Amino acid sequence: MGEAYAVNKWFLFPSRKTFLIDEKGMLVHIFDEVNLHSHPDDILKFFDHK
Fold first, then answer.
1. pLDDT at 4 (0 to 100)
2. Number of domains forming the structure of the chain
3. Is residue 3 part of a domain?
4. I need a labelling partner for 16 at 20 to 30 A (CA). Which of 5, 23, 32, 33 fits?
5. How many angstroms separate the CA atoms of 50 and 45, rounded?
6. Which secondary structure element, helix H or strand E, spans residue 45, and what is its range?
7. What is the mean pLDDT of residues 19-25?
8. In this structure, are residues 7 and 30 in contact, taking their beta carbons and an 8 Å threshold?
9. Stretch among 3-12, 18-27, 38-47 having the lowest mean pLDDT
10. Is the residue at 1 inside a domain?
11. In angstroms, rounded to a whole number, what is the distance separating the alpha carbons of residues 19 and 31?
């Protein structure tokens, strides 16, 4: 799965990314940078601006 989403970084260890997928299964956004302290707020801001 990591190869399919191009997240494998080092010896099959995935990088941190978040993929937002809608109810139809369509990819709507990729968060390439994940800050563990602000990530929940970052996701909520995405939906507020949509």
1. 80
2. 1
3. no
4. 23
5. 9
6. helix 39-48
7. 93
8. no
9. 3-12
10. no
11. 6
pLDDT in tens, 23-44: 999 999 999 889 999 999 999 9
| Distance in angstroms (rounded) separating the CA atoms of residues 35 and 26 | 24
| 2 lies in some domain | no
What pLDDT shows up at residue 16? 87
Percent of the chain past pLDDT 70, that is, above it, reads 96
Tokens of 33: 């940078």
CA contacts within 13 A on the Cβ side of 24: 3
Question: Residue 29 sits in which domain range?
Answer: 8-48
Please give the Cα distance from 24 to 46 (Å, whole number).
Answer: 18
Residue 22 CB neighbour total at 10 angstroms: 9
